[in-house]
Known about the structure:
Blueprint: H1 4-7, H2 17-45, H3 51-91
Helix pairs in contact: 2-3
Amino acid sequence: MIGTEAATPSRSALPGRRARAVAALAILLAGVCGGLIGYALVDVSCTGDCGWQLGVGTLVGAVASASGVAVVASLTLRASHEWRSGRRAASGATRRPVRRRAR
């Protein structure tokens, strides 16, 4: 039957919407903070006309910090998913009976 697949909900490997939203906000916030730090670092160390240096410092700081937080957020989301699925398996919710071979 064609309609039976839609009737049974399938479990998704994706984390929840709230967890993904928090991770995205953390990455965005880290990018903004890294950009501010990069701008401030170039502003303190450069004298005279430093227009393009400020831009490069801001960009490098933002990309570096957002990339680092993205890696940590990705690993955290994966670990929390594995932890929850491990708890579910330990409680017996997804356990299958063990078949023993006849001797």
